[in-house]
Write a structure and sequence with these properties.
Largest interface: A-B, 25 and 22 residues
Structural class of chain B: mainly alpha
CATH superfamily of chain B: NADH-ubiquinone/plastoquinone oxidoreductase chain 6, subunit NuoJ
Radius of gyration of chain A: 25 Å
Mean pLDDT of chain A: 83
Number of domains of chain B: 1
Strand content of chain A: under 5%
CATH topology of chain B: Four Helix Bundle (Hemerythrin (Met), subunit A)
Oligomer: heterodimer
Number of helices of chain A: 14
Number of strands of chain A: 0
Radius of gyration of chain B: 21 Å
Mean pLDDT of chain B: 80
Low-confidence stretches of chain B: none
Number of helices of chain B: 6
Number of domains of chain A: 2
Order of helices and strands of chain A: HHHHHHHHHHHHHH
Helix content of chain B: over 70%
CATH architecture of chain B: Up-down Bundle
Distance between the termini of chain B: 65 Å
Low-confidence stretches of chain A: none
Chain lengths: 396, 168
Amino acid sequence: MSKPITTFEDFIKRILIVIFWVALLSIVVIVPVYYLLDSVFHFPVDLFALATVKPDQFLAWQLSLLQTEPYRTLFALTVFPGFSFVAVYGTIFMGWVERKFTAKIQLRTGPMNAGKVEGILQNIADFFKLAFKELVIPEGVDKATFLAVPIALMAVAGGLISLVPLSPTTYIANPSVGAVLIFAILGFTPLVTLMAGWASNSKYPFLGGLRALHQLVAFEIPMILSLVGVVLLAGALNLAPLSPGGASIVTAQSTIWFIVPQFLGAVVFYCCSLAELERIPFDIPEADSELVAGWQTEYTSMPFGVFQLANFSRMYIMAGLFTTFFLGGWLGPAPVPPEIWFIAKLTIVMIMLMLPRSIMPRLRIDMLIRKGWTMLLMVSFVNLFIAMLLISLGVV
Amino acid sequence: MADLVFLAMMVLTVGSAIVALEADEIIYGAIGLAGSLFGVAALFFLLNAPYVAVFQIAVYIGAVAVLILFTVMLVRQEKWAKEVPPKSAARLAGIITGLAVTVVLTFAVLASNLSQFTNVANSATFVDIGALISTGDSAILLVLALVLAASVVGALTLSKVEREEKNQ
C-alpha cells in the first residue's frame, strides 16, 4: 500500500476502504462466481439460501418486466432511446468528440488530463463543476420566466427526442403525422429564446434573443419545404411503420436513400439544421465576440448546464432527423442490429454538423436573412420540382 | 387517462386564457395566450384530429404568439404596466355577457344530437384529406391560393413603395 498509517483517522479510513471493496466485490464477483461453480459442481449446501431472490432469477425477472407495458414505456422514455441515452451519448460523449475534433483540426491537443485516454472524462468533470457552481440570479430578472426557460428548452428537445426512431420498433412515439409534428415542436424554440432574452433584463441577451428569432423564423420555411419532396417520394408522414410492413419514410428508402434523388433537399436541410442549432457559420444569436453568449449570457451553474444539454440534444435530434429523412435511418446489412446502423450514421452526421465550426467564419445577420429567405427557399423549391418530376416520370 | 388529460388541458386552456386577459405584465399575457392555444391544440389531439392540432401549434404558437411577443417587446412602454383597470360595471357586464354566451352555447349543444355521436375508430389519413381537397374542393383551394398569392404580392409592393419614399 501507499503511505504508512500514522493517525487514527487514517486507520479508520483504511478499514472503511477495505470494507467497501469487499462489499462491492462480493456483489460483483463472489456471488456470480459462486453461482457459476454451483451450476457445475452442485454444492450440497446452498450458502445463499437465506436470500429471497437469486441474482440470476432477479436478472431474468427484470428482463421479463421490460417486455410488459408500463415498464417498457418507462424504460424507453428514461433510458433507451430516451433521455439517458441522449444525455450520455449525445451530450457527454459527443461533446467530448467535438472538443477533440475541433482541437485536432486546429493542431491543438484538446482536453488531455481527465481520464486515462485523451481526456475522455473531461465532460463528466465539467458536469460536476457546473452542478456545484453557485447559481447567480442577476438583479432585475423576471425570476420565474428566467428559471423556466432552460426547462422549456429541454422540454422542446425531449419532445423531439421521442419522435426519432432508432429501429422499426425502438422509438418512444410514432404518430401518423410525425414529419409535420417535428416542425410544430420546433416552432416553440423561437418563443423560448425570446423569453430567455427578455427575462434576463440585459442588453446582450435581448439582442441575442431578437437575432435568434429572426434566424429561426427565416430558416424554418426552407427546412419544411426541403422535406416536402421526401414526403412526396415516400408517400407517408410517419417516420417508422405504423404496422409491421407498413409504409413509412424510412422503409421507402430500402431501394435508394433519399439523399440521391433529393440531394438539394439534403443540402438545404443541413444548412437549416446548422441555423436551427445556432452553430457556426450561423451562430449569430450567440456571437461570442459581439454578444458574450447571446441569450444564454446571464445563465450560470446548472441552468447553463441544462442549456448545454438541450443544445447537444437538439444536435443529436437534427442529426437523427437527417439520418431518418435522407440516409435511410436504420436500414443496413442484416447481421448488425438496426440501432447500431442508425447510431453509426447519426454519429457521422453529427461530426458533419461539427465540422463548419472549425473551418468557417460567422455570417452577418443581413446576409443570413437574405440566404434564408431567398437562396435556400429557391433551392428547396427546385428540389420540390425535382421530386414532382421524378414521380410524374414514374422513376421512383 | 384520456379524461385526466382532457381535464388538465381544460384547466390549462381556461387558466391561461384568464392569465392572457388579466395579467398586469403584458408579456405574461402573451405567454398566457400561447399556453391557451397549446391547450386547444392538445384538445384537438384528444379529438383524434392530429392535423388540426399540429397546424394549430405550428401556426398559432410558432407564428402568431411569437409575432405578438416580438411586437410587444419592440414597442414596449412602461406605462402599460400601470394601465387603469376598466370600471367595475363594465367588467361585470363583460362577465355576464360571457356567462350568457356560455349558457346559450351549452343549451345549443345539448339540444343537438352531438351527445349521441359515436367515436370514429380511424381518423382520416393525410392521403384521404389530400384527395378530398384536390378533387371535390379544388376550386376553393385554387381561390384560396390566389387570394394568398395576391396578398403576398400586395404586401411586398407596399413595403417596396414605402422604402422608395423613404429614400427620396
